[in-house]
Structure formats: C-alpha cells, structure tokens
C-alpha cells in the first residue's frame, strides 16, 4: 500500500465498519455485546488477518491485531480505540483509531517487515457506557482497574444482566486470555476531536496535553403516584417536579462556576410516564467535567447536596450512585514532543490542546506512557449521525501515526 492510497483506504474502511450497527436515520448504534458489536469485532478480526496481523481476543472482548517483533525487545507498542458507539452516534468516534492503527501496521509491515519491538492495534470492547452504567470497560480491564466486583448488580435498560450479555456474546471468565496487560511500553490513541477548535483554526492535528476529569452519576427520586385531578398541589410527592428542580439547580450552579466546567443531564426515565398520574419515580444521569480535580470534586459534592435538599423538601426518597470518577490526566510529555517533531517534519500545522472528551487514553495514561492525537471534526459535531472528518484529515492523522509507530517500533534508540 502506498502512502498516496491512504486517503481512499481509510475512508473506505470507515464506511465499511459503519455498516455494523447502521441506523435507518444514518447514524451508528453499536452497543457492547449486542449482535452488531459481535459482527463488527468478527469482521475486524478477519480484516486484521487479511492485513497479515496475528489476532487474538481477551476474555472481555478486546480484539488485538499484532505485528510481532523479530527481536528480543520487551513489550509492545499499543495503538487503537473503542469499537462501541453511543446510540445513533457517528462513524468516526472510536472506529477511526482502530482502523488507522490497522492501516498503519499494514503499511509498516509491507514497507519495513518485522519491527524490533512488537506493534499492536486493539479494538477496545467498550468505552462509552451507552448500554450499561459502566465506562472504559475495555481499557480498564487492560489496566487492571475495572470494577469486576460490581458486575453482578449491572444491568442494561431492559434489565439484561451484564454477565449474561457478555457470555451470550461469547466472552467472560475463562473463554480467552486475561485482559490485564503489564507489557505495554506506550499507548497511542488517534481520535476525532469531537469539538471545533481544530477546524476553526485550520489545524489538521491536535496533540492532547491533558484530558479533563469526569464524574458520572445516576440519581433516582421516588415519590408517590397519585391522581392528576384529585390531588391538591400541596399534597403531592411529585418525583418529576423534584427532579426538574434538581436539574435546574445543578445546571444553574454550573453556570455560576463557569467554563471550563461542564454539566450534562442526558438521560431520564419517568414512571409510570402517563399524563394523568403524578410521577412516582424518576431516574436521571449527571455527567460533570473539569480539568482540575479539586474544582470537580467540590462541584460534585454541591450538585449531590442540592439533590438531597430538594428531595427532602419534596418528600422524595433519593438514591445517588456514582459510576465513574476519572481524574484529570496528563499525556506523556516525551511522546508529545515526538509527535510535535513529526508534525514539524511533515509540515503539518498542529496545536497542543486539552481534551474535554473522555477517551481510553485517560485510563491508559495512568499505567503506560500515552499519547492522544486528534484530527478535526467538521463543525465540531460528534455523538451524532452528522459526525464527519474529511479523508484528507483522516489520512494526515494516519501518516503521523505511521511515523510515530515507526520511531517507537523500528528505530534503534541510538538512531
Ligand atoms: O463522553 C465522552 O467524553 C466520550 O465520548 N466517551
Ligand atoms: Mn464518544
Ligand atoms: Mn471516543
């Protein structure tokens, strides 16, 4: 494969992978351990084999494609991203990092043969938390930080237990090798920016310096169902009215703290959800993010105490579960400098920037030297069927990845 083929190859592969979980409305929905997820992993496995990579799964469903070293250098350089998507998501989030890694390894194998240090691409099984209240399931298993002791309580919105879904997809304890990796020398994730900074500044490459901290909660309010016509306002234990006041109070508190703090309530269920019954139960999500751990911790405490005080005033029973608490994390400075040098050598304008989105790199960076590299998202749109990145921008990212993997996997340190 020639470098000039990259644009068409990466574009073809993005469209090819998007067929697995394609929505009628044009987006992609590929949720962990569903049939479209299984089909995508199996198709990626076949494609990796066709590209001359040695493939294997681990027991949670992370899929690896390996370009094995022909020398004794310890450990592997790992690149990749997540194969799952949000509901009605785009074609590029996660998928691009996997496909770029596969193309990079194929190009390096065909051009330079076996590396002096093994290079691997990983299709991480899950990052988004779109099906189960669990995020970074793939990368947290690799780093040994997954909440494996809580799995028995985890169910999806149709009450399907996590363990059942994993087993039905063909994974779980004892099926494949352990997911824990202690031999990763560096992890590199290529990803779309999911924001508008690069496009607005006409920069083809973003080199991430730091990923913001992120907390995710599920907040349940239980009141009392009653007749919409015969129950005076003062006698009600209205779970939806309480939740609405909590959500407004939290978002107004976030406005007061100001940027770069962000707070999002993206998901809500109301029961019994009929027009002539006072709601007796609501459950809503809360996602808050900030680059400084102290500010994030303080705001999390304020938000949850607002919920409890409003819940008390509305005579609601409250249950708050925190299912993600990811600290802000720095990317590896040496790798950042290396990528900077590659952009300069390739006369690629770039900017060094933070990431407001969470990524598997956030989990990996606490265990291995990690680099996160962005390419532009058109109009900054993501988690949306209109997510788009041009093939020129996609290919520019792949070229940077190829050079970085060449330097880490082939060049002797002395060179
Ligand atoms: O939510 C995020 O930041 C990522 O897309 N999972
Ligand atoms: Mn995402
Ligand atoms: Mn992503």
Count, helices:
11
**Strand fraction:** 15-25%
Helix content: 25-40%
Q: What ligand molecules are bound, each kind once?
A: (2S)-amino(hydroxy)ethanoic acid, manganese (II) ion
Structural domains: how many: 2
CATH fold title of the largest domain: Aminopeptidase
Brief summary:
The protein has 415 residues and is of the alpha+beta class. Helices cover 34% and strands 23% of the residues. It folds into two domains: 3-211 and 328-409, Aminopeptidase (3-Layer(aba) Sandwich), CATH 3.40.630; 213-326, Alpha-Beta Plaits, CATH 3.30.70.
Please tell me about this protein's structure:
- With 415 residues, this protein is α+β, with helices and mostly antiparallel strands.
- It has two domains: 3-211 and 328-409, Zn peptidases (Aminopeptidase), CATH 3.40.630.10; 213-326, Alpha-Beta Plaits.
- It has eleven helices and 16 strands.
- The chain has helices at 6-17, 35-50, 95-112, 137-142, 162-168, 197-200, 239-257, 293-313, 333-345, 360-364, 391-409, and strands at residues 54-57, 63-67, 76-82, 118-124, 184-192, 205-211, 213-222, 226-227, 262-264, 268-271, 277-278, 281-290, 317-326, 329-330, 350-355, 370-375.
- Strands 1, 2, 3, 4, 5, 6, 14, 15 and 16 form a nine-stranded mixed beta sheet that branches.
- Strand 1 (54-57) and strand 2 (63-67) form a beta hairpin.
- The radius of gyration is 23 Å and the shape is globular.
- The two termini are 26 Å apart.
- 47% of the residues are buried.
- The model has no long low-confidence stretch (mean pLDDT 96).
- Bound molecules: (2S)-amino(hydroxy)ethanoic acid and manganese (II) ion (2 copies).
- (2S)-amino(hydroxy)ethanoic acid (HGY) is lined by residues 127-128, 357-358.
């Amino acid at each position: 494969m020639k470098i000039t083929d990259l644009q068409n190859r990466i574009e073809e592969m993005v469209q090819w992978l998007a067929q697995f979980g394609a929505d009628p409305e044009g987006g992609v929905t590929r949720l962990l351990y569903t049939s479209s997820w299984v089909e995508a992993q199996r198709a990626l496995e076949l494609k990796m084999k066709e590209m001359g990579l040695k493939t294997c799964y681990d027991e949670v469903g992370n899929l690896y494609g390996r370009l094995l070293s022909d020398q004794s250098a310890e450990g592997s350089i790992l690149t990749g991203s997540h194969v799952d998507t949000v509901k009605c998501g785009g074609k590029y989030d996660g998928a691009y990092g996997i496909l770029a890694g596969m193309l990079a390894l194929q190009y390096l194998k065909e051009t330079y043969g076996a590396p002096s240090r093994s290079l691997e691409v990983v299709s991480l099984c899950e990052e988004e938390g779109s099906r189960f209240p669990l995020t970074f399931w793939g990368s947290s298993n690799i780093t040994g930080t997954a909440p494996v002791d809580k799995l028995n309580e985890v169910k999806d919105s149709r009450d399907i237990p996590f363990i059942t879904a994993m087993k039905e997809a063909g994974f779980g304890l004892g099926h494949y090798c352990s997911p824990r990796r202690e031999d990763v020398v560096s992890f590199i994730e290529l990803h779309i920016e999911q924001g508008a900074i690069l496009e607005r500044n006409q920069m083809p490459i973003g080199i991430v310096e730091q990923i913001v901290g992120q907390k995710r909660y599920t907040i349940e309010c239980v009141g009392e169902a009653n007749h919409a016509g015969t129950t005076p306002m003062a006698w009600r234990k209205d779970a939806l009215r309480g939740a609405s006041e909590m959500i407004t109070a939290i978002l107004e508190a976030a406005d007061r703290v100001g940027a770069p703090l962000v707070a999002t309530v993206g998901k809500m269920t109301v029961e019994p959800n009929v027009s002539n019954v006072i709601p007796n139960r609501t459950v809503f999500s809360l996602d808050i993010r900030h680059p400084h751990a102290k500010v994030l911790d303080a705001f999390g405490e304020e938000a949850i105490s607002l919920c409890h005080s409003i819940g008390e005033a509305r005579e609601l029973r409250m249950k708050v579960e925190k299912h993600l608490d990811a600290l802000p994390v720095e990317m590896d400075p040496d790798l950042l400098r290396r990528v900077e040098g590659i952009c300069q050598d390739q006369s690629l304008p770039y900017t060094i920037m933070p990431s407001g989105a969470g990524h598997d790199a956030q989990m990996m960076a606490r265990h291995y030297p990690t680099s996160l590299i962005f390419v532009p998202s058109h109009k900054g749109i993501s988690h949306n069927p209109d997510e788009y990145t041009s093939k020129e921008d996609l290919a520019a990212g792949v070229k940077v990845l190829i050079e970085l993997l060449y330097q880490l996997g082939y060049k002797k340190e002395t060179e």
